Amino acid sequence: MIAALLLVTFTEYTPSARAEALLSRAVKEEVTGQEHAHLLKIQSSGVNCNVVVRHAVAVVSASNSDQSLCGRLTTNLHDAGWNWNDLLSARSFKQWREGLKEKKDAVRKLSDATEVTTTTIHGPLRRATLRVRSIDYQAVQARFVFASGAEEEQPEFEVTESEDVPQEISKSDPAPAPVMPEPKTLPPPLPVIDPMDATEADVRLALHRLGADKSVLLAVNRGPDTIHVTGVVPDKAQADSIIGSLSSLSHVETHVAAEGEGGLSSSWRSFQGDAPPLAYDKLNTLYSESPQARQRFINHVDDITQRLLAEARTRDSLLVLANRLLSQSEAEQLKLTLADTESSMAADLGSLAFALQPVLEPASNPLTPGARGLTSVQAIRLYDLVHELVFMNRANNRLSLEDTQAQVCRLISGK
């Protein structure tokens, strides 16, 4: 009886139990559907993005807003399936937390509020903190950390609310707030235009026409006032075509060379392992009579995963640009290029699913690619997992063969 009492007491006071209880109470007390305009003040690494929300729509305040930060947050919210109204919502926080397969909770009591922090190693949103006021259980502050490339974390976003709405916003018509789109739809626009967006759009459209945006060895990097196109391409003819196509664009620097010319190198670093692949025994069985066929299979898989990386990177950039330039002349061309990129990604996911099927059985039978494609973060993860499976593994890798097979299947199928 004492043991049972201790068990109940312990369970009630674990961080997860306390987090669940606090969020449930905050959801019960949450005020929804605010009619008045309110300002979300978002800060990260010393820069700001001010977003006014009114009647479930949002518009960026031109005053004291960093366009790059606003654009990055728009993309992060889109990837995570959140919108602007979710940022200070106990209900949305609770729903996100309950959907996590793995999580760690922490609860911190302050003088006039309580903070719940939930951390996970999966998904685009890795850590979220919600501060709830003690007197009425209303959310007053939130902090978010999103994943970026190579499973690294971006700087933390801090969100607070104010009713001090800027004058230029209160007199203007707001634009639709970002919401989670259906497959192959664009995230809604925010009306903040950077003059460099049009230049980047011209660069990406030119590279797509030349078929150069499917190479992971070629990168488009954007500085404050210059766009850099760098890397290597298969032959000199394509290098000359890229240089010629971009030479008329101002604020664009192009440093592209053909493979073997020397002098230039790509920022891309291919997978490096130091142990046998996880599917070593399976590969030996499949290709016991032909080492050459095994090498052709590995080369084929490597080509597809690299191409998927380039396509995902291009898709992410096109989504952001199409969002920003929705009212510009380049918008329709960007949409067509985005659709073409997504179509190519779907075809490559199908090819990869078909090629890996013998290695993945019985993890998936048959494996069907998902309709939503991959983000660049997901494509990097898929590249690493596939190479650990069939090419080389890392000696310190903690994933088993079965875990790796399952993760590869989830990424390809979009589950």
What does this structure look like?
By secondary structure, the protein is of the alpha+beta class. It contains twelve helices and eleven strands. The chain has helices spanning 2-12, 15-29, 67-80, 90-98, 167-170, 195-209, 236-246, 280-286, 291-324, 331-360, 376-390, 401-413; strands at residues 38-44, 47-54, 57-60, 104-109, 113-119, 125-133, 139-146, 157-162, 218-222, 227-233, 252-258.
User: β content, as a range?
Assistant: 15-25%
Number of domains: 2
Shape: globular
Range of helix content: 40-55%
What number is the mean pLDDT? 80
Regarding quaternary structure, what we see is: single chain
The ordered string of helix (H) and strand (E) elements is: HHEEEHHEEEEEHHEEHEHHHHH
- How many helices? The count is 12
Which terms would index this structure?
single chain, 8-stranded antiparallel β-sheet, alpha+beta, 18% strand, disordered N terminus, 415 residues, 2 domains
